[in-house]
Amino acid sequence: MQMTSLSSRSTAHQHVDRVVTQSARMAVDWPLMLGTLLRHALLISLALVMLLPFVWMLLTSFKPADEIFTNQLRWLPENWALVDNYTKALTESSLLGYMGNGALVVIAIFVIQVVVSVPAAYALAKLDFPGRKGFFAAVLLCLMVPTQAVAIPWYLELHYLGLLDGFWSLVLPFSLSVFGIFLMRQFFLGIPDELIDAARMDGMSEWRIVWCVVFPNAIPAVVSFGIFSVVAHWNDYFWPLIVLNSQEFYTPTLGVVDFRNAESGTDYGALMAAATLVVVPLMAAFLLAQRRFIEGISMSGMK
Q1: In the chain, N or C: fewer CB atoms in 10 Å?
Q2: Rg for the chain (alpha carbons), in Å?
Q3: What distance in Å separates the CA atoms of residue 38 and residue 4, rounded to the nearest whole number?
């Protein structure tokens, strides 16, 4: 009986100790919980600030012309003009044709950039040759040069080659991406050298190692670079405005400007509907490739 009583007391003491420990942990966790709530509140606030222009664009595409500019702030329209605005966006301008031109241009640019960037990044990451550090320093230096700074030399080169006002004038200046070389090189540094040495011992050439061994392992980095490249060139307004005169080669950003009319007044409802349709493919592509995009950024050391 005494042993049973002692055992019961010991169990009761252990239970009391667990309760006290859990209470202490809950008391210590309050500052952590408060910090987490504040951090999430800040992130949500910043996300709302970033999303507000897109929400306003979408809601404006639902409004008739007489409700877009009013003295009162209204999120939703009293009279919905969704069908009219989106019908105008698709019928009063060759918007689908412009989006087709944009898709052709961004795909051509991305394919050429990958073909050039992957071997160059492999050489900078895995091959030992004289001047390798100098070439990489040149890549870093070129990252700091904005597109606008070299626009005039590019324009003159295309003029002498007779390539202005066409698809090649949109593709060729961006066929080499120093950002792509940098991103791929950072990712390739994480690939084990033993894997490449094993491929060499099997008799594979460096070219085959690049495309049959390294490239399949670098899909997250390629997807990340693809998101950056497609978004940049799909949204580019500056360069197409300079090199294009023929409307048949217009890209989506130039096509949206068709709804601007200084004489009869800009149709902002249709313009916002066209802008919404132009943005939708980018959002869909990002959502589909979101997981790979995050993997590529985190594994290339660009966090």
Answers
A1: N
A2: 29
A3: 51
188 residue type, one letter? F
CA distance 170 to 241: 10
What is the predicted pLDDT for the residue at 88? Answer: 87
165-181 pLDDT, tens digit per residue, is 889 999 999 998 999 99
> Would you say 187 and 262 are in contact if contact means Cβ atoms under 8 Å apart?
no
Are the C-beta atoms of residues 275 and 256 closer than 8 Å to each other? Answer: yes
How far apart are the C-alpha atoms of 297 and 259, rounded to whole Å?
A: 38
Dihedral, CA of residue 196, residue 199, residue 205 and residue 208, to nearest 10: -80
User: pTM for the complete prediction?
Assistant: 0.80
On the 0-12 / 13-18 / 19+ scale of CB atoms within 10 A, 164 is middle
Answer whether residue 216 shows pLDDT above 70.
yes
Q: How far is the C-alpha of 265 from the C-alpha of 257, rounded, in Å?
A: 13
**134: exposed, middle or buried (Cβ count in 10 Å: 0-12, 13-18, 19+):** exposed
CB burial readout 135-157, b (16+ within 10 A) else e? ebeebeeeeeeeeeeeeeebbee
Q: How many CB atoms neighbour CB 86 within 10 A?
A: 19
Tell which phi-psi region holds residue 162, choosing left (phi > 0), alpha (psi between -120 and 50) or beta.
Answer: left
Query: Which burial class, exposed, middle or buried, applies to 184 when counting CB atoms under 10 A from its CB (0-12, 13-18, 19+)?
Result: buried
Q: How confident is the model at residue 67 (pLDDT cuts 50, 70, 90)?
A: confident
Distance CA 225, CA 219 (A): 10
